[in-house]
Design goal:
The chain has 367 residues and is an alpha/beta fold. Helix 8 links the parallel strand 6 and strand 7. The chain is globular and about 70 Å long. Helix content is 39%, strand content 10%. Helix 2 packs parallel to helix 8 and helix 5 runs parallel beside helix 6. Strands 1-6-7-5-4-2-3 form a seven-stranded parallel β-sheet, sandwiched between helices. The relative contact order is 0.17. The protein contains eleven helices and seven strands.
């Protein structure tokens, strides 16, 4: 077990995980400037995309449930960078940033949020159900832990076919308390499956602190009963997340065995767009809004101090991102709405005898 940045009661501080060598004084190691700028742009894009999503939701352009990645951008980019194109991804309902990071067209992601036919799931999935077989993002799932058995099954399929792909299964901290978590871990280790279970720990689950809901609050240790190695990483540090995740992914690929990665960070908003997060204490609100816990701001400042991100370049990237997000919103706004006659087209993968296609307001029994 490795603990590179240990949170205590939701007031974690960065540890030595940010320093990549003794001679490295800026925390950036020997990274190529263009790579670092690309990570910064990705993180900023997810931030602005999610902010635009929240705005569209309050304008009733997006319906249903909607959960944002605000504050978790470094974790998202680090995890997605660690995966190969051929690897599979399963997430929970907080999936917009992961969908974009895995390679989905942001315009189609936004169209899906708007419930339009040009969306990645033709408008029928919405915020919680991004899905694209081409990029191997096999779904966001609205049921807490619903993705765990499916991801474990996908890893079994990889092993059964003799492939070398790895499955990454992302979840929130609250998911580690449900039965599917224990069942999936047990099967994954028993059958030696190439899967990395990633726990995003923002300290509050939906509204209850980890310490109040988990007898073992060090979530990366919770695979010990199944002899699964776990590590914790500072989720505010995109390079630390990338390096740790890449190492575990490649070990899962080579050793054909599961791993657990816990990444901690501070979610800037409540559980969903409509959650005012009144359950947070004053200290928790201060931590969530503090500049030092904002991964986009801190990484940008880190690059600026290293002379990589100039003021002019920062403004150029910001303008480019703003324009691209606006383009995605315009695309979604102008995409057609699904025809009501197609409501039942995707209920089943194959025809089912006596399938009900009764529309709302239709009589239960034919006259």
């Amino acid at each position: 077990m490795a603990d590179t940045a240990k949170p205590k009661g939701g007031s974690a501080r960065a540890s030595g995980s940010r320093r990549r060598s003794r001679k490295d004084t800026n925390g950036l190691g020997n990274e190529k400037p263009e790579t670092l700028l690309d990570y910064y742009r990705q993180m900023l894009f997810i931030r602005r995309f999610e902010e635009r999503t929240g705005q569209a939701y309050t304008q009733a352009r997006i319906g249903g449930y909607c959960h944002l990645n605000l504050g978790e951008e470094a974790t998202v980019v680090g995890l997605m960078t660690a995966l190969q194109e051929r690897d599979y991804l399963f997430t929970n309902y907080r999936d917009h940033g992961y969908a974009i990071g895995k390679g989905m067209d942001p315009k189609r992601v936004m169209a899906e949020l708007y419930g339009r036919v040009d969306g990645v799931s033709k408008g029928w999935g919405g915020s919680m159900h991004m899905y694209d077989t081409e990029t191997r993002m096999l779904g966001g799932y609205g049921i807490v832990g619903g993705q765990l058995p499916l991801a474990t099954g996908a890893a079994l399929a990889v092993t059964y076919r003799g492939g070398d792909e790895v499955v990454m299964c992302q979840m929130g901290d609250g998911t580690t308390n449900i039965g599917a978590w224990h069942e999936s871990l047990n099967i994954a280790k028993l059958w030696n499956l190439p899967i990395v279970f990633v726990v995003i720990n923002n300290f509050t689950g939906m509204g209850t602190t980890v310490e109040m809901s988990s007898a073992e609050p060090d979530l990366y240790k919770r695979g010990s009963a199944y002899r699964i190695e776990g590590e914790r990483v500072d989720g505010r540090d995109v390079l630390a997340v990338r390096d740790t995740a890449a190492r575990l992914v490649e070990r899962a690929r080579e050793e054909q065995t599961p791993f657990i990665l816990e990444a901690w960070s501070y979610r800037k908003k409540g559980h969903s767009v409509v959650d005012p997060a009144k359950y947070r204490t004053d200290e928790q609100r201060e931590l969530a809004s503090a500049d030092e816990n904002d991964p986009v701001l801190t990484f940008g400042d880190q690059l600026a101090k290293a002379g990589i991100l100039t003021d002019e370049l920062r403004e150029e990237i910001a303008a480019s991102v703003k324009a691209e997000v606006a383009e995605a919103a315009d695309f979604a706004e102008n995409s057609p709405k699904p025809d009501p006659s197609t409501l039942f087209d995707y209920t089943y993968a194959t025809p089912v005898p006596n399938e009900s296609r009764r529309m709302p307001a239709d009589p239960v029994f034919a006259e």
